[in-house]
Amino acid sequence: MFANELLRTCCCLRRSTKNNFPLSTPEGLISLDSGHIGQEVVVLKNGKRLCGTGGAILNQALLQSKSYFEVKIQQTGHWSIGLCTLNADLNKTRGGLDKFSWCLNAENLVMNDGSVIFDLNELYSSQNENGSTANGINEDTENLLPVENNSSNEIHHVMPTTQSTSNQRSILPQEGDIIGITYDHIELNFYLNGKNLNVPSLIKVTGSQPNNNGEYNSNEIYPCLFVDDGAILDLIVDNFNYPIPSGYDKIMVEQTLL
């Protein structure tokens, strides 16, 4: 009798109690979501590579307090990298053109709702005019080079000789570079080859909004990628190329026990 009573009690607890546990998951469980992609998008490499035309989001929202992931610019073209809600239009060729997405793009612009939040071209050109060293190379140039080029023996082969182009090579994203993204439910930040670009963007989402189909989606925030003109992006959610910024962690999945 005691055993039967205990069994009934446990069953009631399982039906009435919901416990959420954020768990660090294997890399294979997090990928681009084939159910939320643009019509002309192609997803390859087990959901880790995006090509074609349009956007895609991850199959996991950023639920933890501080998240980090990376994206490699595998092939140049027009790309956008950032965050969005499920209301974002993934058939667009660029992110940040609607109010549901916040993205850094290949034109070196951070955009939301079609407006430029930061222009890296203008921001860093003005800094270079005031802060370049005597030989025309910013003091952080070597640290901003991709991993495979980050050695003194190769700097002369990848760095142009003029001041303007050398600073642009070190500061603005190019093919082979790694873009890091952090999000703390308030602010989005971008990193280039491990260096903070110092372009913090506030993420403000208020109230559910209908998408293009008139459906209402949640305001959860998802990583998003957009490609066009031959661009190829590779998603990195584990085994990162650069150290995770202090206080942040890789994307975790919340599992629910019913």
TrEMBL record:
Where would I find the SPRY domain in this sequence? 66-199
Q: Which residues cross the membrane?
A: none
Q: Which InterPro entries match?
A: B30.2/SPRY_sf, ConA-like_dom_sf, SPRY_dom, SPRYD7
Q: Which PANTHER family match?
A: C13ORF1 PROTEIN-RELATED, SPRY DOMAIN-CONTAINING PROTEIN 7
Listed name of the protein: SPRY domain-containing protein
Question: Species name for this entry?
Answer: Chironomus riparius
